[in-house]
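Hey Z.,

So I finally got round to the zinc ion thing we talked about over coffee. Here's the setup:
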Amino acid sequence: MKIPKTTNRYCPYCKKKTEQKIKIVSTGGKRGTLTRGSLSRAKKRGLNRGIGNKGKWGSRPAISKFKRKTKTTKKTNIMYTCNECKKSKYQKKGQRAGKVLQE
Ligand SMILES: [Zn+2]
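And the result:
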């Protein structure tokens, strides 16, 4: 999906329609990935390295068809920056697209 670099939209700081820059911001990190006892934390600590049976931290069986991730597209988060007051407004837009490109 293609989105333009600038748009004319309402700025709540200037209280009028202004030209605003569009920037795609990251959707944020996953919550709770580095909690105690999680596999990703153990791997970051290097517990899955070495010789022999790693037990809990060793290799995992393949994820079954039903446990696999179902969503193939991501929602995009867009940041609008006003060209007049240079203030930014973040808006979570629920647009699902495989890849978001800026024109
Ligand atoms: Zn403004």
